[in-house]
């Protein structure tokens, strides 16, 4: 995930409390969610990064990956992105 605040607002019911456990209640500290989101830290990443994502992933939608990829590219960072026509991508 690249934008924890967006995920907290838009996630499914099953995952809705996961970020509360990791970060804290979204409604109580929205600024902390932004601070912890890689999307807003892209300019601080210098190593090459590669992303693999399933195009129908239900928990973390492809838009999360596409946002961080775009931010890294705007910052001139080396990034690779592969979107697969499968619901869930699992790497072994």
UniProtKB/TrEMBL annotation:
Name under which the protein is recorded: Peptidase S9 prolyl oligopeptidase catalytic domain-containing protein
GO BP annotation list: proteolysis
Lineage: Bacteria, Pseudomonadati, Pseudomonadota, Alphaproteobacteria, Hyphomicrobiales
GO terms for MF: serine-type peptidase activity
Annotated Peptidase S9 prolyl oligopeptidase catalytic domain residues: 11-81
A Pfam family this chain is assigned to: Peptidase_S9
InterPro entries listed in its UniProt record: AB_hydrolase_fold, Peptidase_S9_cat, Xaa-Pro_dipeptidyl-ppase/CocE
Superkingdom per UniProt: Bacteria
Organism of this sequence: Sinorhizobium saheli
């Amino acid at each position: 995930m690249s934008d924890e605040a967006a995920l907290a607002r838009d996630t499914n019911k099953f995952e809705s409390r996961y970020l509360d456990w990791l970060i804290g209640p979204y409604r109580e500290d929205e600024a902390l969610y932004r601070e912890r989101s890689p999307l807003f830290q892209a300019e601080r990443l210098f190593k090459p990064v590669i992303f693999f994502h399933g195009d129908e992933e239900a928990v973390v939608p492809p838009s999360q990956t596409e946002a961080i990829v775009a931010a890294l590219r705007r910052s001139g960072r080396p990034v690779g992105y592969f979107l697969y026509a499968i619901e869930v991508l699992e790497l072994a």
